[in-house]
Amino acid sequence: MSKPLQPFDVLVVGGGPAGVAAAVRAAECAVRVGIVDDNLALGGQIWRADRGGRQVTEAEEWRRRVAQAGVTALFGMRVFHQPEPGVLFAESATDFCELRYRTLVLATGARERFLPFPGWTLPNVMGAGGLQAMVKVGLPVRGKRVVIAGSGPLLLAVAAYLRRYGAEIPLICEQATWRQLARFSASLIAQPQKILQALQLRKEIAGIRFLANSWPQVARGHGKLESVTISCAGKSEDIACDYLACGFHLLPNNELASLLGCEIRHGCVQVDEYQQTTIAGVFCAGEPTGIGGVELSLIEGDIAGLAATGRRDDSRKLFGARRRFRRFASLLNETFALRDELRSLPSPETLVCRCEDVPHARLRDQSSWRAAKLHTRCGMGACQGRICGPATEFLFRWNPDSVRPPVFPARVENLAAVAESLEPSAVIGGYPCTGKA
Amino acid sequence: MPEEITLTVNGFPVRVPSGATVAVAVVSAGQACRKSVTGQPRSAFCGMGICYECRVTIDGRHHCRSCQIVSTPGMDVRTDE
User: Fold this and answer.
1) Do residues A133 and B24 make contact, with C-beta atoms less than 8 angstroms apart?
2) ipTM
3) Which residue, A32, A75, A88, A410, has fewest beta-carbon neighbours within 10 Å?
4) How does pLDDT run across A382-426, given as a tens digit for each residue?
5) What does DSSP say about strands B34-35 and B55-58: parallel, antiparallel, or unpaired?
6) Cβ of B52 and A130 within 8 Å?
7) Is the Cα dihedral A411, A416, A418, A424 positive or negative?
8) How many CB atoms lie within 10 A of CB A368?
9) Chain B residues near residue A119 by CB distance under 8 angstroms
10) How far does B20 lie from chain A, in Å, by closest CA?
11) What is the reported pTM?
């Protein structure tokens, strides 16, 4: 290690809309800027490139801007530990890297919220965004029957996408009430951009059966999904299908922020008006600060990128736009808030923790998330409670624990580096990663 | 149409579009990715590297998240390990 360890002036974790906006803004000041992402390309979940060559125009434009701005982009690399402030450890499928920074922007995005119901662990029951992501990377759905269920505007976008790829969509189930949906639609009048999107979407999903007040009750199949029973207004209906695409709106990915000690309230990373967290020099933008969609993420990323490079006055010019999109975000989250009936979806045998196979019956008498972890191993598996934690928060009103390192499962040889402070095989600070496994 | 590549899942050849992830190959082959701790078949679920349900063994390396890894020609993928 003869090279000097030059840190990034601004390191962005997460390459979705908020992350790329922050990185491009920060790079305007000609500082050393890096962006690191677990995925194989920029764009996050929303702009995940389509293997078939259909690119999201806006995403392409941002990729070009990131490249032109001279941002060092590291893909397929997941941050799992902060040994000390200013240093992050990350690993890829084969490499281990130490990333140094002066200022950090967390843009770790969102994931889908999943709720347990009988049969939800069967193969071919997937997240709604999850199935879309799989189709984007090559899963054929032509001629397949896909029931889409859960909550949130993502369900409609997924329906439109899958239909474009030849899937048959017998039904979309939304748990929100018609009244909530009507109020949401009416409010779009204040958001002209959203109206255009909604009209386009409506055209694309025309003719697909849509039910409000409905949810998946049981998924059935031998070895894999064959049918799903849907509950709507007290009635049940069985529908044969190849896939069930199922997600209940979105959740902030706040684990890394939590590991760094940032204050988190109601699952959202707390930030000041410049998107700075409660840890000085650590900013946060996009979905981790509260689910709000792509436009809000871009603006928060802009503000974070400007403020992280000392341009607070410039960032203030964007506060008005951010306020407007935040109003839309609160309405979004009110509309798609989960209804109480969904708490009674699991049967006693339904597995709530998929990693450790812990059924609902073993959890309902536990007093807290911590007690459940200690007594049942719920949340102790590979996903570290990312799936069952939010589910139990809703089902039992438990509060999640603090996060411990490593924030993602890491390979033993890399954990050894953490434990013994061994010299990492690669140090990145604007230098190419030359690490080995 | 983009060209296809061939890899093996549990020793059987599977053709997928180039650029497809390993999870796509496993699901296309009609296989589950892993057995849960009580022996249930599990397959790709979140599709974005969070849930770890799609873990497989790739070229001898255990616990690879197949939804985050692109297939390459001749790759040896094993499920249920």
Assistant:
1) no
2) 0.96
3) A75
4) 999 999 999 999 999 998 877 888 888 888 888 877 766 545 554
5) unpaired
6) no
7) negative
8) 14
9) none
10) 5
11) 0.92
